[in-house]
Design a protein that fits this description.
about 100 residues, mainly alpha, 3 helices, elongated
């Protein structure tokens, strides 16, 4: 097994991509929650027209944060899948080359 890693016959990246994927999900969820809370408050300050100290919670700002979070999760999933597919293609090509050597 160690020889496969040293000869680059087995890649570590697909396992690491899965770990990075879950870390990314946690980050996106935290950012989305921050946008829902902060975006709601900032939206009320900007739309209220009252400069500093605008009051209340703005549903549009919170909704924007929620939509952003959903889009970010989809994009993050697709990006990680593309990375995994690239490594999978390389593994399959290696199998085809090994078949041809026999």
């Amino acid at each position: 097994m160690l020889n496969d890693l040293m000869d680059f016959k087995k890649f570590v990246a697909p396992s690491l991509i899965r770990i990075v994927y879950y870390i990314g999900i946690v980050g996106i969820v935290l950012m989305t929650l921050g946008m829902i809370a902060g975006g709601g408050m900032m939206g009320s300050m900007m739309l209220g027209g009252g400069g500093y100290g605008g009051g209340g919670f703005n549903i549009l700002g919170a909704l924007f944060g929620l939509i952003w979070g959903a889009c970010a999760l989809i994009i993050w999933r697709v990006l990680c899948e593309v990375w995994i597919v690239m490594f999978s293609i390389n593994d399959r090509l290696g199998q085809l080359v090994d078949r041809g050597k026999v």
